[in-house]
């Protein structure tokens, strides 16, 4: 169990769809433990495995006193009611932009022993469930922004110290 280093915008692992988990073993439990340790730090709501460099469909969440994880999550229900509000991402630090999401979401998946689980949330938890599932599909919240806002977001990201530039050491 450990707090893992984060990957940042520009790292190809963040835009590559994650593979389904097929082995339910100690390695998976160690990954889940690391995701939970990492998401439980203050100011964190959710964390997907690709954000720590692991291309598997697993995420953890920590919203409003509720915390847990889902293996092989799939969004199975989204409300028609929409919420719009500021959204940020650990892989795009310090940048928050208005993002539209369903006001309620349900994710189904399995736990570390391959037993079915379901998580339903409203407001911030709904936003988190959608955001983390997007990560597993190789999408960032920036992909959901209006074109002019996305252009501004990408400009700010590229100017940041944390932006991953590939072969030049970042």
From TrEMBL:
<dbReference type="GO" id="GO:0042586">
    <property type="term" value="F:peptide deformylase activity"/>
</dbReference>
<protein>
    <recommendedName>
        <fullName>Peptide deformylase</fullName>
        <ecNumber>3.5.1.88</ecNumber>
    </recommendedName>
</protein>
<dbReference type="Pfam" id="PF01327">
    <property type="entry name" value="Pep_deformylase"/>
</dbReference>
<keyword id="KW-0648">Protein biosynthesis</keyword>
<dbReference type="InterPro" id="IPR036821">
    <property type="entry name" value="Peptide_deformylase_sf"/>
</dbReference>
<feature type="binding site">
    <location>
        <position position="135"/>
    </location>
    <ligand>
        <name>Fe cation</name>
    </ligand>
</feature>
<keyword id="KW-0378">Hydrolase</keyword>
<dbReference type="GO" id="GO:0046872">
    <property type="term" value="F:metal ion binding"/>
</dbReference>
<feature type="active site">
    <location>
        <position position="132"/>
    </location>
</feature>
<feature type="binding site">
    <location>
        <position position="89"/>
    </location>
    <ligand>
        <name>Fe cation</name>
    </ligand>
</feature>
<keyword id="KW-0479">Metal-binding</keyword>
<comment type="similarity">
    <text>Belongs to the polypeptide deformylase family.</text>
</comment>
<dbReference type="InterPro" id="IPR023635">
    <property type="entry name" value="Peptide_deformylase"/>
</dbReference>
<dbReference type="GO" id="GO:0006412">
    <property type="term" value="P:translation"/>
</dbReference>
<keyword id="KW-0408">Iron</keyword>
<comment type="function">
    <text>Removes the formyl group from the N-terminal Met of newly synthesized proteins. Requires at least a dipeptide for an efficient rate of reaction. N-terminal L-methionine is a prerequisite for activity but the enzyme has broad specificity at other positions.</text>
</comment>
<feature type="binding site">
    <location>
        <position position="131"/>
    </location>
    <ligand>
        <name>Fe cation</name>
    </ligand>
</feature>
